[in-house]
Recover the amino acids of this structure.
């Protein structure tokens, strides 16, 4: 028995057996194209098609949306998404492409949408028939998110939207968008409202998507322009003027601190069980296969120290997630949950930096070079890591939030 | 074997810890601690050993020293996780006491598996105090290294860095013998024993080196004949307890400094408004949380996953030592001029943390040992 299995409830234990059995019999198959490191770097339709098929099969088997009510397209189970996630990762399955839907749109719909709307939209989100994106940031509203200026003007039971969103991952494939916008210019926070918008249906008719290119050369995120897009009031979540409160549900889940567990299937390539790039323990293998000053990099005391620092931080973070659930072992209920995204993103970034030290001259080789060790994935991971330390509230904003909400220090401006 | 999800920190452990927290905060507020240990700032003063023996008697009555003593030997037979929770609380108030020294002695004794060791554990459960006397002059933490030898039934040589040696009644002495290395119980006051106080920086502890001038030991004092193995087996728990003390002290340093950030104003704002001060304190909070999570993971592993105990304990001590250094540095710096004075309480904790950091190996030492475990030793 695995260590997790021993602590399962009877529902979890039965579900785990089911997951294992299904996963052992259902292979995602080998991808026909090279996959990116995560869903937010999906460039081509062919990459998406492969991943979308996998998510659809996993959903049909009941491994996605396990804890959502049956009426919303979920499995109606209790604390079982975690089990499915563990088993999918253990089986080395590829990642799920619809992560902005699964991680952010789904919990927000669940907590804030009318029954009819969520029952209509969630099944297609879970199955990956509908790709979702997130319309939050704007050129003038980055870290200061509440400053969004995209405006919706009410006309009867319709709204007319004008504005400009940016850093919108997956918008080039998306059917739907969660959209934070302004319905009142006289009040910063209380002037915000929250909608879901069928953007693909409106392409060329009020919606324009323009790809942005990342420092890696990959696409994956976009600018989205709204030009007199008319949508029904049925697509509003919660009341007019409550957009900031709804957005908190989205942000809490985006930072890994929300009550709904995000479906996730690990970061495998579909076939192997090798450690994913970004895992600090993977640095040991990398060092053993690298050379420094004519000897094994694994024998360099300074590199060994750096590798141990990363492993200790990663283990500390893992054990923190465990401790956060133990009553009486935390000084403040949100203290560890609100650290999750900050700590994880910085560990990824610093681990990739150590990998570059280990690789030495070979770290100059990009993923386009056949001689690049480990396919050039570590230097790519280093570049991509800035996406995570900047997105969803930059690390500096996370430190403000922790300093103010958890430690109670004065609000910084 | 696997660990319980909640580190086996259940209702009993929580009640024990909560009672301890309240008891210590009621009985040893920081101003009282300062009066107790910081009465004489003269750096050339005679080495002092200041502690509240009345408070200690109450702690013994509360049963803290019996927590990990097996029930068969008259103790409570609770988990190391429970003891860690207590150690975190004693660190939080920087308690001067033989609590950790006696706990470390108990950890070694419970590995001995002999009737003499059981007997001494029983005495500890009844209130006796003890400390380890096994470190050589060069400060090596390797379990086989010691400067005392047994010749013709007497101990000769010296042991160094013995913790809280002037607060305890019994020394657990390691000695090289013709067959290897043994542990002996030597009561303080034995003939030929010379306990020489070290002048140390930490005001909340005492430390000594001990000369053995032909100290006779009898068969009844022999605790075990495999000292190296026993000390090695107890080491993960000793590291974990030290790390727990550091986590409690670190939390005090964080909260005390954060409070100052709320009340002290400059440029028309409370200091916490400024990100140059706010962000490092958030970093400290993250370091404390990492260290504390690793401490409970290590303690839980020692109790129920022994194959991973050494690895996780090194992680905990490394993480806590790094955190403690940062906590001490920032708590002094962010208090400004007052933080550099004797009257401000932060130096008491900085000094205790400094002591904790180096005892049984600092962060770099732990990471070197961890690398040997995870990567294998460096090729010759």
């Amino acid at each position: 028995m695995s260590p997790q299995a021993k602590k399962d409830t009877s529902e979890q234990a039965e579900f785990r057996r089911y997951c294992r059995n299904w996963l052992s019999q259902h292979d995602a198959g080998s991808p026909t194209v090279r996959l990116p490191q995560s869903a937010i770097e999906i460039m081509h339709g062919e990459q998406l098609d492969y991943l979308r098929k996998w998510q659809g099969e996993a959903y049909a088997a009941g491994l996605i949306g396990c804890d959502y009510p049956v009426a919303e397209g979920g499995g109606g189970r209790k604390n079982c998404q975690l089990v499915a996630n563990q088993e999918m990762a253990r089986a080395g399955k590829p990642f799920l492409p619809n992560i902005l839907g699964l991680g952010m749109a789904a919990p927000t719909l669940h907590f804030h949408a009318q029954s009819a709307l969520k029952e209509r939209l969630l099944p297609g989100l879970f199955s990956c028939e509908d790709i979702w994106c997130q319309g939050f940031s704007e050129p003038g509203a980055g870290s200061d998110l509440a400053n969004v200026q995209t405006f919706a003007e009410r006309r009867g039971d319709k709204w007319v939207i004008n504005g400009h969103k940016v850093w919108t991952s997956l918008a080039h494939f998306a059917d739907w968008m969660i959209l934070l916008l302004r319905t009142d210019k006289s009040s910063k926070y209380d002037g915000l409202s929250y909608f879901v918008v069928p953007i693909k249906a409106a392409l060329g008719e009020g919606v324009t998507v323009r790809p942005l290119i990342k420092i890696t050369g990959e696409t994956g995120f976009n600018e989205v322009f709204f030009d007199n897009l008319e949508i029904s009031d049925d697509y509003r979540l919660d009341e007019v003027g409550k957009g900031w409160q709804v957005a908190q549900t989205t942000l809490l889940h985006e930072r890994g601190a929300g009550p709904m567990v995000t479906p996730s299937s690990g970061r495998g390539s579909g076939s192997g069980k090798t450690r994913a790039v970004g895992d600090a323990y993977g640095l040991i293998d990398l060092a053993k296969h690298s050379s420094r000053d004519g000897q094994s990099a694994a024998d360099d005391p300074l590199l060994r120290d750096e590798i141990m620092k990363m492993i200790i931080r990663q283990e500390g973070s893992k054990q923190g997630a465990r401790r956060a659930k133990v009553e009486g072992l935390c000084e403040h209920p949100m203290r560890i949950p609100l650290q999750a995204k900050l700590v994880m993103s910085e560990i990824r970034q610093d681990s990739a930096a150590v990998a570059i030290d280990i690789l030495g001259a070979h770290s100059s080789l990009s993923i386009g070079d056949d001689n690049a060790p480990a396919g050039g994935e570590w230097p790519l991971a280093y570049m991509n890591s800035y996406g995570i330390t900047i997105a969803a509230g930059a690390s500096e904003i996370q430190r403000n939030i922790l300093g103010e909400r958890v430690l109670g220090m004065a609000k910084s401006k | 074997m696997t660990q319980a999800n909640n580190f086996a920190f259940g209702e009993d452990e929580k009640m024990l810890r909560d009672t301890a927290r309240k008891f210590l905060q009621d009985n040893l507020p920081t101003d009282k601690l300062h009066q107790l240990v910081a009465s004489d700032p003269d750096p050339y003063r005679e080495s002092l050993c200041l502690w509240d023996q009345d408070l200690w008697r109450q702690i013994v009555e509360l049963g803290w020293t019996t927590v990990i003593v097996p029930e068969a030997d008259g103790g409570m037979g609770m988990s190391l996780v429970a003891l860690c929770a207590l150690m975190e609380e004693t660190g939080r108030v920087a308690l001067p006491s033989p609590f950790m020294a006696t706990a470390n002695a108990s950890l070694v004794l419970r590995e001995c598996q002999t009737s003499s060791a059981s007997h001494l554990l029983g005495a500890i459960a009844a209130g006796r105090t003890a400390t380890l006397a096994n470190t050589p002059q060069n400060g090596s933490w390797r379990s086989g290294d010691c400067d005392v030898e047994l010749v013709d039934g007497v101990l000769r040589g010296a042991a160094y860095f013995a913790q809280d040696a002037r607060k305890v009644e019994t020394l657990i002495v390691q000695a090289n013998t013709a067959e290897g290395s043994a542990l002996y119980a030597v009561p303080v006051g034995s003939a030929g024993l010379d306990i020489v106080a070290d002048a140390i920086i930490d005001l909340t502890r005492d430390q000594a080196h001990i000369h053995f001038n032909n100290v006779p030991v009898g068969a009844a004092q022999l605790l075990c004949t495999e000292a190296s193995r026993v000390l090695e087996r107890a080491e993960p728990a000793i590291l974990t307890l030290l790390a727990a003390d550091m986590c409690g002290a670190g939390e005090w340093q964080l909260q005390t400094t954060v409070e100052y950030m709320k009340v002290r104003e400059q440029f028309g704002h409370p200091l916490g408004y400024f990100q140059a001060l706010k962000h490092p304190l958030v970093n400290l909070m993250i370091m404390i949380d990492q260290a504390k999570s690793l401490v409970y993971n290590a303690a839980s592993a020692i109790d129920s996953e022994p194959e991973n105990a050494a690895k996780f304990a090194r992680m905990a001590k490394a993480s806590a030592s790094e955190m403690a250094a940062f906590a001490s540095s920032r708590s002094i710096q962010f208090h400004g001029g007052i933080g550099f004075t004797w009257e401000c309480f932060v130096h008491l904790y900085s000094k205790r943390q400094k002591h904790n950091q180096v005892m049984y190996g600092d962060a770099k030492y732990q990471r070197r040992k961890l690398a040997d475990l995870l990567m294998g030793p460096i090729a010759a």
